[in-house]
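Cont'd.
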Amino acid sequence: MSEDSGTAAKETTTERIPAALRREQILAAASRVFGERGYSGATTDQVAQAAGISQPYVVRMFGTKENLFLEVVARALDKLMTTFRETLAEHRPADDGDDADPLITRLGAAYVDLIDDRGILLSLMQAFITGHDPVIGAKAREGFLQIYRMLRDEAGFSPETIRDFLANGMLFNTLLAIRLPDIFEDDEAAEELMRCAFRGKLDVVLDASGATWTRS
Amino acid sequence: MSEDSGTAAKETTTERIPAALRREQILAAASRVFGERGYSGATTDQVAQAAGISQPYVVRMFGTKENLFLEVVARALDKLMTTFRETLAEHRPADDGDDADPLITRLGAAYVDLIDDRGILLSLMQAFITGHDPVIGAKAREGFLQIYRMLRDEAGFSPETIRDFLANGMLFNTLLAIRLPDIFEDDEAAEELMRCAFRGKLDVVLDASGATWTRS
DNA sequence: GTCTATAATCTGATAGAC
DNA sequence: GTCTATCAGATTATAGAC
């Protein structure tokens, strides 16, 4: 009868934890929910349930749904930029010659690895697709251009190289959004496209998609 | 005092027109609205206003909002497939040699030209991003794979060629969604990216975006 | 720090008149 | 063929208790 009946997946009695930590939990939940259903498609109640708290508390913590979404997107962008910069830094030492994979390939791999937090990639994509909104749209444009400038000014790529890189990223996001990894092996075209689009990273993608089948 | 005061942009007295024609008007309006705001973000009332009729009539005509969206997406996919097949057919005659642009370039150009009905490209993209939905998601997956198979089986491209083609398409859709064409000349990075991404088709894109500025 | 209750919309859909 | 009226349900946000 105490509050310690940890069998159910969802909390019966919510623990009292520091606001800062709760904030992170909400953001993590929101990232998943917004990533799946988009800004308008997601409800603050869905976020609340995913975080195991009440709906009003979500709103109380972030003021408005829009604020929450903007924070999620800002975090996602930040994570992406940081990941790229780390990859850039790691690459510098062995810069000359063709010792290993070219930088662009490493960045692509780093991008794909972000899939283990689907929310990051999908929330960003959802922000892009909400470009019509005055507030969200402005942030989306800003964010996209920020990535472009980083690839150009910090990584030193040509516009053409960046274009191809971004294009592959958008394709990757789209395949994730339509959940192609979920119908792997169901459809020969789906499998062929995935093998080609995800290259050596197919296993990473499939793992992250919570697939429940064994290797044949 | 009669119903013929054609100065306002929106109808005051709705004309009585054939259902089939009205249906087309609604679909055209819905394509624009859904393309901008997405499935959840758009309301049947917004569609109704864009079509110049009442909200209940929109619902009456298509049963449900979901049905209307599915019809919009099916039409968009159809238009895309048809456009590609026409491009394929036109190419056949002068197939051998490098007489003009390679087929893939022509297909790319045909895709960009679809921008004069933004709704087509954006509605499709909105469908892709709504992949989590059981019904819409299924159609989105199907549609995407249909395009892939066409490019492979009818156009004869390799998976790698198709991947790059689709990737550029997704980038194009994304740039459209974040309305990059609207801030052309406002931001040097935006302009550089657009020139690179849209190649020779920049003017077509800018024209279609209802830009209101004169060439410098 | 977190909840319950609830106000205030908004929105999809139905009924029925003209 | 099209509208007005309207209901039912969903959803963001606020108030206030604990």
